[in-house]
Specification:
The chain is an alpha+beta fold and about 450 residues long. It is about 55% helix and about 15% strand. Strands 2-1-5-4-3 form a five-stranded antiparallel β-sheet. A five-stranded mixed β-sheet has the order 7-9-10-12-11. It is elongated and about 170 Å long. The chain starts with a helix and ends with a strand. It binds adenosine-5'-diphosphate.
Length: about 450
Amino acid sequence: MFLVALAVAGAALAFVALALAGFAPADRLATVVLLAFGGAALAAFVVASLIGGSLRRRVDQASRAASRYAAGDFTRSADDWSDDELGAVARVLDGAARELGRRIDDLSRDRARMEAILGSMVEGVLVVDAQGRVQLVNDAARHILRLGRDAVNRPYVETIRHPGIVEQIGLALAGQQPPGVELSLTRETSRTLVGRAAPVATTGRGAVLVLHDVTDLKRADQIRRDFVANVSHELRTPLTAIKGYTEALLDDPDDAEARRRFLEIIHRHAFRMERLVKDLLRLARLDARQESPEYAPVDLGGLVRSLAADFEPAAAAKRQRLTTRVEPAGAPVVTDAAKLHDVLRNLVENAVSYTPDGGAIDLTAAVDDRSVRVTVADTGPGIPPEDLPRVFERFYRVDKARSSAGGTGLGLAIVRHLVDALGGEVTAANRAEGGAEFTVVVPNRL
Ligand code: ADP
């Protein structure tokens, strides 16, 4: 730049000097030429300093802007880039930097959103690149696979210890869609997980592994299997008896005494099957919430007394004392009378059937403005403490041999569903003095 200025200024002054030289005497020519070149050098120095100073300022400006960009600040610059070519280039670069900043902001927001989603997922997610390096792992996957904080950027074969999962990822990296692999955690054996890896987009771009917790699904599946097995078993018992006795009847239809006995047995088993099917249908209805409660004022005293009257013959046959009490008598109660009646009928029926001859059954109700509390207590054998939490399960029986002859094993499961439908709670306990005590608390919907 300095040389350009020098050349321009020199040329201008030389031109002036030469022009003057035409009018000057010959002895002064050398002086004029010398002065011309001296002036040219001075003018060149001044012009070059001016241009150089402005250029340095602008280079400084540009270098400050570049430092800001490097520090991640892509906001608009306050600098005045002036209107020449250099300014135009600087403005274009400034605009491009701001656009870049906007895109980086968008990407950061997307990444934060993705991390929030992955972080809140119960499923474990792990992504590896084409070279098999872990690129991304969420907290769930970290916990399930017990990965350290340094897992990212390391080869998955070094960080994942489960051979089935390593194989899955290997197959996915080779472009295959392997079937899921089941794994259980060594520290939480009750949990079952399924890991499934798939190639990302197209072959060669990496793989993504998703880990699902299928514990609840497995449990539900097991419950369903047990239920089907139990129903089959409960139906097979009376069916076998019916089949056997009808065959005996067909073999010897003339023995009047045996015929009567066999028909009674067949009738009893048919009755039991009918009860079982009725209970199953009721449970299915309650499960599907098809029995919505119908609330109306209830004469609780009358309901309790009529129940006791229904069971009086059965209790009398076993010389059992069946007492009832409602406190305060005549207190207003609003609930679904039919459902409450079915709950108490099941509980009193169990109490009568599991309490030995000569025992006592007490049916007590306490009412207040907010709830109705009914207790059915007996002097029977009670329920072993370890079985108390399970007696409300379908087909759960403490002791098959002790089960009531006509019982389906579904009575308490129906009780729990009915009490649920009424918005209440039922609990089983043992009395200190011996015997079982079932307590039902339902809201009084006055
Ligand atoms: P079940 O048809 O066998 O009576 P439930 O569902 O009504 O079926 O009861 C489940 C199990 O709970 C019974 O098999 C019995 O072992 C136990 N049980 C229920 N009520 C009593 C009670 N009052 N005393 C002792 N055991 C009881």
